Structure formats: C-alpha cells, structure tokens
C-alpha cells in the first residue's frame, strides 16, 4: 500500500469569513467531533505534565465509566453526525483493542458514524507489536498518531521514552500499511541537542514518507523530572534562539518537501491533516469525554465551553456528573478565541474585522507596523498572516491584538 493515501484535500480556509463565523453547526443534525481522554501511561516521561495515572488496573473500570458518560450524552449525540473520533491521552494504545472497539460500537449506536469519518488513536510505538495494528484497523481506526518524539537513541533516553529508535522506525513504516493516515510527533530542543541532530530526525521522518508530522519545541514544565534536573544543573536545554532555529529548520525542510504548515506545530501532505484537531482550531463543536476532557458545544447559536474534573477517582465515581467548568461564551470571549485560533492556523485575520472589534481603542496600524518590522506578519489583501518566524510568536501577537 502506498504510504501516502489522499483522504481528501485540506479544506480551503476562507480568508474572508469574519467573526462570528460559528453557525449552528451542532444543531439540527449537524457535525460534531468526539474526543476521549484516556489518562493512562506506563510511566511518566521526564518532560510530561499531562493529567495521567500509571495504575493500569483501572483501565476496565475507566471504560465502564466512559460508557456511562457516553450514554448520558445520548440526547446530544442522537441529533449529530460524527465528523471525527479522537482517542488521546495519556496513552490510548495501552488499552486492549476490544475495549476501544466496544466504545466505538456504543457510540455508533447513538450517533451517525458516516463512512470515511476519521477515527484516530494516539499510540506509542512499544504498544503496536504483534497483531495490534491489524486489530485496530479491523475495529475501524483509520488514523494513528505515533508518539515517536525522536529516531535517535540519545534523545529518546534524555526524554525518558520507553521505545528504541529502531522500534520507532519499524513501527512508523509498518503503520503506513495499516492506516490511511499516519502522523508522527517529533520534539526538538532536547537537552544537548544540536541542529545537526535535529536535522537527522527530520530526515528520518522524511525518508519514512510520513504524511503528517507534529513538531514540538521541548518546554520545561513545572514539577517535572526535567525541571528538577535542569534546576540541579545536571542537564541544559538549548538556548531559546537555538530552539527557534530548529523549529524554523523544520518549517523550511518540510514545506520544501510539499508539506502544508497548517498549524503552529502541524504539517500535512495534502489530505492528511487531522480532522479532529482542525475542527477544534476552527471552533467547530466537539464533545470531550473522560477526566479533564474539554468540550465546545453550540446550542441554538449559543456557544459553550465545558470541562470535566481532572481526577480519575472522581470520574469513576460519577462519570456523567463531574463537570467542573461550564461557561457560555460572551461576544468578547468569542472574539478573543477567534483571533488566537485564526492565528494558530494562519487562516488570515481580516484587518477590517479587527478594527471593528477594537473596543479598547488599540493603535492597530502601529501594532501591524511593529510586527511587520520584526518580520512576524504580512498583510495581504486586507488580511494579516504570520510569517514562518511569526509562528514562534503567534500567542504573543494574538494577545497584543486583543490586549489579552
Ligand atoms: S507517553 Fe505521552 S502522555 Fe504519557 S507520560 Fe509520556 S509524554 Fe506524557
């Protein structure tokens, strides 16, 4: 099977679609995506601060709770056509395939699962040996996102990853025989990493003809093993400027090879973008299930964000009643989200629209001039776009434009 199978072109992102662009897309039988947060990992990687537990003996109980929460969402799902299902975490590939398949059967009995919809799983290479990929495919998964992080032994060991460089490459190649779309996560800016080493990782991914890549710059998060080792002076992370050079190298190399840089960290060959992630960035509705999962729902034109408690025990005790945050968005909040998310996917921010919503009286022409002088933005046909360098400052620029 060809490693690059087109699943349709990346949707054209309208440059003229002004805020508020949100139609009642979730009402009246519309599309929704579903995210399931699977909060289990075998061990915690040195840099990771995600919500997760290492008690794998709770997995069965978690899936019983997930079924309860899913059934409670039946009235909402009943009117929906599902665009994408995304199992994230954590490490969803730790879960026996029969549990994943059981949940898909349940959800498909509650909502419309159109043929060709995206069903994606985040996976670590060490979980995909034997018949697992074949079984996942048989269960309906057509996209897999591999937590490779690096193809180099030294980097994998510095990150505390459990797989070997050889396994990472073997699984990257094998996955392309089983799934329509394969994505690989890579991290740059690991302690001791040089630009040359990073080029080696990019080259390995390109040689493996991976159709989708997510490139992250390592950040030292509070309360992680990495933070403690950096604080003790045992390791040093590359300087910000060196890390930025690695990121810019990725943009240049990948775009030169035909990848579309469709989000700050994401690159896709035509048709291989993540439908679930793009839906979130385009402010389309999604339902989040599981502890700490977030939802964005639209009812009769009213937009809501909601979040579950980040506690597995609380979730197991009351899976359908552990919402800790439920907020209707004001016009100002919708505006701020629109600006931040539009810049992330570089869809072009209409300058006239920014002026219309400039309630704080910001001197926008001066801001545009400052950002242009730094080489961060360009203004084309009345819309603002980030440059490659500007992606490094996307949140800073968005914050300045809304004075957040
Ligand atoms: S596998 Fe992913 S989620 Fe799990 S600890 Fe490592 S980085 Fe965090």
Summarize the structure.
With 404 residues, the protein is of the alpha/beta class. The protein is built from 16 helices and 15 strands.
Description:
It is a single chain. The chain has 404 residues and is of the alpha/beta class. The chain has 16 helices and 15 strands. The strands form 3 sheets. Strands 7-8-6-5-4-3-2-1-9 form a 9-stranded mixed beta sheet, with helices on both faces. A 3-stranded antiparallel beta sheet has the order 10-11-12, with no helix packed on it. It has a 3-stranded antiparallel beta sheet with strand order 13-15-14. The chain is globular and about 55 Å long. The relative contact order is 0.14. Residues 1-24 have low confidence and may be disordered. The chain binds iron/sulfur cluster. Iron/sulfur cluster binds next to loops.
């Amino acid at each position: 099977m060809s490693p690059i199978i087109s699943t349709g072109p990346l949707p054209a992102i309208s440059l003229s679609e002004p805020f508020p662009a949100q139609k009642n897309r979730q009402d009246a039988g519309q599309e929704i995506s579903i995210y399931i947060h699977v909060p289990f990992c075998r061990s915690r990687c040195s840099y990771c601060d995600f919500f997760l537990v290492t008690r794998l003996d709770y997995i069965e109980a978690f899936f019983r709770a997930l079924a309860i929460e899913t059934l409670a969402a039946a009235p909402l799902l009943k009117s929906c056509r599902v665009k994408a299902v995304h199992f994230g975490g954590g490490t969803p590939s730790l879960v026996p395939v029969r549990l994943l398949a059981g949940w898909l059967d349940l959800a498909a009995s509650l909502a419309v699962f159109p043929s060709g919809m995206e069903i994606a799983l985040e996976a670590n290479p060490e979980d995909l040996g034997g018949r697992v990929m074949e079984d996942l495919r048989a269960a309906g998964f057509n996209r897999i996102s591999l937590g490779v992080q690096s193809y180099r032994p030294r980097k994998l060991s510095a990150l505390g990853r459990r797989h070997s460089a050889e396994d990472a490459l073997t699984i990257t190649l094998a996955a392309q025989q089983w799934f329509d779309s394969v994505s690989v996560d890579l991290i740059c800016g690991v302690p001791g990493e040089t630009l040359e080493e990073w080029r080696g990782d990019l080259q390995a991914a390109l040689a493996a003809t991976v159709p989708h890549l997510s490139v992250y710059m390592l950040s030292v998060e509070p309360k992680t093993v990495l933070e403690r080792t950096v604080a003790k002076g045992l390791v040093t992370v590359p300087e910000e400027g060196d890390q930025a050079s690695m990121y810019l190298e990725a943009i240049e190399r990948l775009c030169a090879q035909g990848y579309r840089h469709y989000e700050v960290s994401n690159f896709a060959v035509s048709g291989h973008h993540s439908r679930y992630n793009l839906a979130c960035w385009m402010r389309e509705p999604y339902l989040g299930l599981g502890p700490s999962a977030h939802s964005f729902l639209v009812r009769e034109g009213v937009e809501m964000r909601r979040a579950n408690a980040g506690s597995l025990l609380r979730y197991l005790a009351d899976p359908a009643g552990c919402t800790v945050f439920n907020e209707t968005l004001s016009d100002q909040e919708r505006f701020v989200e629109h600006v931040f998310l539009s810049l992330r996917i570089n869809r072009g921010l209409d300058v006239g629209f920014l002026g219309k919503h400039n309630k704080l009286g910001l001197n926008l022409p001066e801001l545009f001039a400052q950002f242009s002088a730094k080489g961060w933005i360009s203004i084309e046909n009345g819309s603002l776009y980030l440059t490659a360098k500007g992606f490094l400052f996307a949140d800073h620029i968005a914050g300045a434009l809304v004075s957040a």
